[in-house]
Amino acid sequence: MQGLPAALIVLSAAISICAQNQSGAKHNSRPQQGGDASSIGATAKTERVKYTYEFSQPKFYIKHIVIEHDQNGRGTVTFERLDGDTPISEPIEFSSDALARINASWQALQFLDTETNYQSNKQFPHLGTMRIGMERGERKRVAEFNWTNNSDASKLVTEYRKAADQAILVFDIAIARENQPLNAPKLMELFESLLKRDGLSDPRQLLKLLHDMSTDEHIPLIARNHALRLIKQIEK
């Protein structure tokens, strides 16, 4: 049965490494890859379109995620931790490949032209609730589900989840480099775990970050060497 991932491994993995103070954190510098792969249709070039993805599960370490972006794949990701006082908001830009996959799922869903209920008969609220939304002109729709048998809806939320996990990883790496360098080795382990299970939106977007880490004497040597190994894995 096709559906959402049965477990969000990255959330539990992050518990042991992300207890940093969230206040006063600077926005991280992440490699940006422009996305001009929007294929929503000719109207997308002249009419503003807004896409949203939301995840919520109050008991998870990352308890709330919201991604908002335009037809060019540029927007923001906002997330809240279980032990955090305020949401953290970061800019996000999908690579052209990731945006193409996202647009393909939106197109297949014909989201604004249907009232399809994506919720399967089975309920898995303990895994969290997903909401996907699109707004174009006066037309607007939001759909909510916690498990789906619709392959296109499943692919769409999986892509958004990968983008969120990638953005949170980059944010945590930036915090480690600035304030908690001893956390860098564990973050590199998490990076590799996500990479091996295809859990990142587009790893090539992070090559510049890894190159920077490989020469950053502020973090432990083991993390710098790990960054070099990750570069080789991504460039294969």
Q: Helix fraction?
A: 25-40%
- Our Rg estimate from Cα atoms comes to 18 Å
Ends apart, CA distance between termini: 32 Å
Quote the beta fraction.
15-25%
Secondary structure tally, helices = 6
Structural class by secondary-structure content: alpha+beta
Sketch the major β-sheet: 6 strands, antiparallel
Spatial order of the strands forming the largest sheet: 4-3-2-1-5-6
Whole-number tally of structural domains: 1
Instruction: Give the overall silhouette.
Output: globular
Number of strands: 6
Poorly predicted residue ranges: 1-44
Question: What string gives the helices and strands in order?
Answer: HEEEEHEEHHHH
> What is the average per-residue confidence, as pLDDT, rounded to a whole number?
86
Q: How would you sum up this structure, described in words?
A:
The chain is α+β, with helices and mostly antiparallel strands. It has one domain. It has six helices and six strands, in the order αββββαββαααα. The chain has helices at residues 9-15, 96-109, 151-178, 184-196, 207-214, 221-235, and strands at 49-56, 62-70, 74-81, 88-93, 129-136, 139-145. The protein has a six-stranded antiparallel beta sheet, with helices on one face. β5 and β6 (139-145) form a beta hairpin. α2 (96-109) packs antiparallel against α3, α3 (151-178) packs antiparallel against α4 and α5 (207-214) packs antiparallel against α6 (221-235). The protein is globular, with a radius of gyration of 18 Å. It starts with 8 loop residues before the first helix and ends with a helix. The relative contact order is 0.18. The model is unreliable at 1-44 (pLDDT under 50).
